[in-house]
Write a structure and sequence with these properties.
58% of the residues lie in helices and 6% in strands. The radius of gyration is 34 Å and the shape is elongated. It has 3 domains: 67 residues, Homeodomain-like (Arc Repressor Mutant, subunit A), CATH 1.10.10.60; 82 residues, Up-down Bundle (Monooxygenase); 146 residues, no CATH class. The N and C termini lie far apart (83 Å). Helix 6 runs antiparallel to helix 7, helix 8 crosses helix 9 and helix 11 packs across helix 13. The strands form 3 sheets. It has a two-stranded antiparallel sheet with strand order 1-2. Strands 3-5 form a two-stranded antiparallel sheet. Strands 4-6 form a two-stranded antiparallel ribbon. By secondary structure, the protein is mostly helical.
């Protein structure tokens, strides 16, 4: 039975005996012989195959081996891989962890995340607080988002990326498509402001029509028919926008709703006071205004009430 198996060719037409002869000839005749001379000697040792067939067989085997190997990065020794990952910041480590299971394990190593988890005010640092087994990478992401997530929302809002609106849905063709299919009864001021800005961009400026269109959109997305809508909802939308953007609550020009607007107070007053009391005080004034703006955008308002 074993002798019969030796003469049974595989899909490529090579028998086990020919394969062993090819491997032995490749070891016996090193590359130092020269390319042409070496392959002629290998083909002669195999006997039943010519030079071209031997070359093709070796290329096919090499391709199969390369296909079965892990990516080059995963072939490195774990210590070498950690040395490479140490040069990445937290954002890049998170991206690396999304590649595959092997890189996720390496990118979550405590050695990489302990410096990041401790690079926060000491009372939130990983090494100073008992974390009850929470890994450093999870703690770092949780704490840093809690500390800086709200400011990231404000920055994206000013850039016109609509982060508050993205929490509840997306605008498609001028209509709000909700993630859960249901509009929450409580909405953040940031969601209302971004709806007003988008609608104003469509209509070419702020006006009472913009506020009414936003109010109609909110009513149309009411969770159910038993929801009670406050009277003059469009006026509520207008007042919320004026609260977040003082001085820009009515038709005051095409630039009043543009993303990137410095809202939360008069920039002229801030610059004047800055010139009077110095650069440090002007920077402090700007930070206070930013904090006030962030709190206003994060404020929630009950637009609709469910009538039992």
């Amino acid at each position: 039975m074993s002798d019969e198996g030796e003469h049974v060719p595989d899909a490529a037409g090579w028998t086990p005996r020919e394969q062993r002869a090819l491997e032995a000839a490749m070891r016996l005749h090193p590359p130092s012989l020269g390319v042409a001379a070496r392959w002629r000697a290998v083909a002669a040792a195999v006997g039943s195959k010519d030079v071209r067939q031997c070359v093709q067989r070796c290329k096919a085997i090499a391709a199969s081996i390369r296909a079965s190997l892990p990516p080059p990065l995963l072939r490195l020794h774990p210590e070498m891989l950690l040395c490479i990952l140490e040069g990445l910041d937290g954002r890049d480590l998170c991206a690396m962890a999304c590649v595959c299971q092997e890189l996720r394990s390496a990118a979550h190593d405590d050695v990489l995340w302990l410096p990041i988890a401790n690079a926060v005010p000491s009372k939130w640092a990983y090494s100073h607080v008992h974390r009850d087994g929470e890994p450093p990478w999870a703690c770092a992401l949780r704490v840093r988002f809690g500390l800086y997530g709200a400011w990231k929302m404000l920055t994206e809002h000013r850039c016109g990326n609509c982060p508050y609106l993205a929490e509840v849905g997306t605008l498609e063709g001028g209509r709000l498509r909700l993630h859960d299919g249901v509009l929450p009864y409580r909405l953040k001021y940031g969601v209302v402001c971004e709806l007003v800005q988008r609608e104003a961009a469509e209509q070419g400026g702020l006006s009472h029509r913009v506020y009414r269109a936003v109010a109609d959109m909110l009513v149309a997305l009411s969770p159910n028919s038993k929801s009670r809508v406050p009277p003059e909802l469009h006026m509520t939308v207008r007042e919320i926008y004026k609260t977040c953007y003082p001085g820009y609550g009515s038709a005051t020009g095409s630039g009043a709703y543009a993303p990137g607007l410095q809202a939360g107070g008069s920039s002229a007053k801030a610059s004047t006071s800055g010139a009077m009391v110095g650069k440090g005080a002007a920077l402090m004034t700007k930070r206070v205004q930013d904090e006030e703006m962030r709190k206003r955008l994060d404020t929630s308002h009950k637009f609709l009430e469910l009538v039992g």
